[in-house]
């Protein structure tokens, strides 16, 4: 008897219950319940949900949305040609900058980040997790299928510190690495039935796939315990949700909408195949025949219409006529006998289904799915009713949908780059690069260039306003630069210094009288000196001891 009759796998991730009360039952055991809530809920555990996300990825809209998010979030720098950028918290020296840039290129080249970063980001957003095993000697990263992670051992006595990952079917080349965990220490971790997390005296917790203590599932020979310090777990989890230590896929909130859209698409296809073709209605005249005779006559006429007579020759040499199925070809004519009174059989056409072009309900669920994925419709090449591509914003202006999408991509970048930043700093320590790790951070490049478009339009509007008020004599140039151009005092002084440098002017009071007005400094009266009250203090004689001049 199979063990599945008594056990079921569970990976420790709580799922919301569809029961409405203690008296409610599952749809499989109650004839009054519906399967629809269970269909909308999806698969019960983590490993099965990965297959669910693969099925969703086969949808064209979901696939395009995931590609768009990954492409916008993993842009390459035009100068370094790398998907990462180093953000300095302090002013680095020239040597530190060169060493960090060179080390970053080596790290990206060793792990093939230029080719793999798109798929890493896309799979992390799609599944919620991506795992890599680090070679302790070369610090090269090897990808591990997250569905192969059976359980994670967590030490709650140390602030929920992850001790080990149990990975099944690990590659033999990875098993040869010195990355296995201390199984004697981890064997003290308790297991409860159904995989419910349990605590022991050592305050260790195991998020397993459902293995009762003492059974053969608790010590699977195909499962390898990997020390957590050699595992890079890129996740979308912040550590404060119920799915930790695993992340939540961005496809999880839109699964219900996806299923509704899928069911609606199937119903539309079925309607067009089954109900859209027109049908023929045959009225067969049976006269005054009894009921059983009328039924026999109707069946005979039906068989005659549905059959085709084909002459053939048997092996004995006799000529016979075989009957073949005829699916009522529209190219054939039908002949029925009719009496003098006009009685007889007739054929009428039953029109097919109507409203074949009404797909507003499908558009509604498709737009709802795109809103859940947070991708603007204009990015997916939407078409309006006239067949022309539409744009939901003016050129050079970032609309609210684009702004929200940019912020969403930046939030995903911050979650994903955290583990990669730690790994890069450990790579520097392994290579002997002695640079303070808190002085810099690894980050993705800026999402697209909507900030440039926005700043360009803001500058254009500001310059137009400044030009219109610049000629006013009653407004100070310095005040206009601060008020309408938004320049600070430091920027005004910097502009003045650069203006003098470009024109080789040492004294701001020399040179063109009109030139310095643009930077907020005006020269004195022509041909005169700075004076006070009309008196020249240089021409005054010093007073004597008595105070006379």
UniProtKB/TrEMBL annotation:
<dbReference type="Pfam" id="PF07230">
    <property type="entry name" value="Portal_T4"/>
</dbReference>
<protein>
    <recommendedName>
        <fullName>Portal protein</fullName>
    </recommendedName>
</protein>
<feature type="region of interest" description="Disordered">
    <location>
        <begin position="503"/>
        <end position="549"/>
    </location>
</feature>
<dbReference type="InterPro" id="IPR010823">
    <property type="entry name" value="Portal_Gp20"/>
</dbReference>
<feature type="compositionally biased region" description="Acidic residues">
    <location>
        <begin position="532"/>
        <end position="549"/>
    </location>
</feature>
């Amino acid at each position: 008897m199979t063990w599945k009759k008594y056990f079921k796998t569970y990976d420790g991730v709580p799922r919301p219950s569809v029961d409405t009360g203690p008296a409610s039952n599952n749809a499989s055991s109650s004839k009054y319940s519906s399967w629809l809530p269970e269909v909308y809920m999806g698969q019960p555990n983590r490993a099965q949900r990965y297959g669910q996300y693969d099925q969703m990825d086969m949808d064209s809209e979901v696939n395009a949305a995931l590609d768009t998010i990954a492409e916008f979030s993993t842009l390459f720098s035009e100068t370094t040609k790398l998907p990462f950028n180093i953000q300095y918290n302090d002013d680095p020296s020239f040597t530190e900058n060169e060493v960090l840039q060179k080390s970053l290129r080596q790290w990206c080249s060793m792990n093939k980040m230029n080719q793999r970063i798109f798929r890493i980001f896309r799979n992390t957003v799609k599944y919620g997790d991506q795992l890599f095993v680090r070679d302790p000697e070369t610090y090269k990263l090897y990808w591990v299928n997250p569905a192969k992670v059976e359980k994670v051992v967590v030490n709650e006595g140390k602030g929920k510190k992850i001790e080990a990952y149990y990975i099944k079917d690990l590659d033999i080349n990875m098993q040869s690495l010195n990355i296995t965990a201390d199984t004697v220490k981890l064997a003290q971790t308790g297991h409860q039935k159904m995989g419910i997390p349990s605590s022991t005296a050592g305050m260790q917790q195991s998020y397993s796939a459902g293995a009762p203590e003492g059974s053969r599932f608790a010590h699977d020979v195909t499962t390898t315990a990997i020390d957590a310090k050699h595992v890079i777990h890129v996740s979308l989890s912040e550590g404060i949700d119920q799915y930790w230590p695993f992340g939540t896929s961005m496809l999880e909130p839109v699964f219900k909408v996806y299923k509704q859209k899928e069911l609606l698409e199937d119903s539309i296809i079925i309607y067009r195949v089954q109900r859209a073709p027109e049908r023929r209605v045959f009225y067969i005249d049976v006269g005054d025949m009894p009921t059983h005779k009328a039924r026999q006559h109707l069946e005979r006429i039906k068989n005659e219409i549905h059959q085709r007579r084909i002459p053939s020759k048997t092996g004995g040499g006799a000529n016979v006529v075989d009957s073949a199925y005829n699916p009522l070809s529209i190219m054939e004519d039908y002949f029925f006998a009719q009496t003098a009174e006009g009685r007889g059989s007739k054929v009428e056409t039953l029109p097919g289904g109507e409203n074949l072009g009404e797909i507003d309900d499908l558009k509604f669920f498709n737009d709802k799915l795109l809103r859940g994925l947070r991708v603007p419709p204009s990015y997916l090449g939407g078409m309006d009713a006239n067949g022309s591509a539409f744009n939901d914003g003016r050129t050079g202006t970032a609309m609210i949908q684009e702004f929200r999408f940019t912020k969403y991509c930046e939030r995903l970048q911050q979650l994903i780059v955290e583990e990669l930043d730690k790994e890069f700093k450990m790579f520097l320590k392994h290579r002997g690069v002695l640079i303070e790790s808190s002085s810099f951070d690894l980050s993705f490049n800026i999402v697209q260039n909507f900030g440039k478009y926005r700043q360009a339009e803001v500058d254009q509007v500001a310059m137009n306003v400044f030009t219109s008020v610049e000629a006013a004599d009653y407004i100070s140039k310095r005040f206009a630069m601060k008020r309408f151009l938004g320049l600070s005092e430091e920027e005004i002084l910097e502009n003045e210094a650069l203006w003098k440098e470009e024109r080789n002017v040492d004294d701001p009071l020399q040179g063109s009288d009109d030139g310095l007005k643009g930077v907020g400094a005006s020269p004195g009266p022509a041909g005169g000196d700075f004076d006070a009250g009309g008196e020249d203090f240089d021409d005054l004689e010093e007073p004597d001891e008595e105070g006379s001049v």
